[in-house]
Specification:
This protein is mainly β. The chain contains three helices and eleven strands, in the order αβββββαβαβββββ.
Amino acid sequence: MTSVTPTTSEVCSSTLRGQLARWPTGVAVVTAVGAERPIGKTVNSFHATSLEPPLVGWCIDHGSSHLDDWLAADGYVVHVMAGDQADLMTHFATKSADRFAGIDWVPGLDDMPVLVDEVPLRLECRVSHRLPVGDHTYLIGEVVRITTADAVPLVLQR
């Protein structure tokens, strides 16, 4: 058996980000109604918060584009990406004034943008809590509609 000596280092944002990237995570595209147009963003901070009531959450960086729109949105739609949807994930991760350019979508709950592409899991939510935490705000939403498909979710590591 090989012995591995752990390494301890000072905590800084770049070290923390690099080490947390070692943890496998799912990927979702979150969409909402913005002041001027639909908004969308790729996130890996999405997770379940509560089953009773049905709550999910994700975190928005205070340096994020359209921050004011995200904080003002009454709801959001979480689209869990499938393994073959890396292009769609990348599209919504790229800085762009209009991330919906060339993307097919339809209005869903409360006219929120629902991507037409089939995804393993889609959750249409109404915001129930906005909690400022450090350099992010934690957006917790109550799940109102759920749509599922048999596709395998996309998982990223490093």
